[in-house]
């Protein structure tokens, strides 16, 4: 947008859309929450990047905050993040998924 480059703007939107589509029904981002003890750091960082994209889109007249794909949306990600602050054990089931051929073991689980 700042560079008046619609191609870059479209790419950012496609990244936002992909994140919405690929999150789990509970709002977790699979690539982020399998990272063990740092899972929610990465979930939060991804959410921040998505919020920046949504704000830029909003300034261009597009409301992508409410983009919904089969019941999955940005609001679900926020809810998952809040739920984590109340019960950090919700990421344990994801933190043991394989990451690049290795296992991410949660340091939060002991």
Helical content stands at: 40-55%
Termini separation comes to 45 Å
Low-confidence stretches: 101-110
Order of helices and strands: HHHHEE
The main sheet comes to: 2 strands, antiparallel
- Total number of helical segments? 4
| Secondary structure tally: strands | 2
Question: What portion of the residues fall into strands of 2 or more residues?
Answer: under 5%
List descriptors:
single chain; 110 residues; mainly alpha; two-stranded antiparallel ribbon; 50% helix; disordered C terminus
Overview of the molecule:
It contains 4 helices and 2 strands, in the order ααααββ. The chain has 110 residues and is mainly alpha-helical. Helix 1 packs across helix 3 and helix 3 packs antiparallel against helix 4. The C terminus is likely disordered.
Brief description of this entry?
By secondary structure, the chain is mainly α. The chain has helices at residues 6-22, 30-33, 39-59, 74-86, and strands at 98-99, 102-103.
Task: Outline the fold blueprint.
Layout: H1 6-22, H2 30-33, H3 39-59, H4 74-86, E1 98-99, E2 102-103
Antiparallel strand pairs: 1-2
Helix pairs in contact: 1-3, 3-4
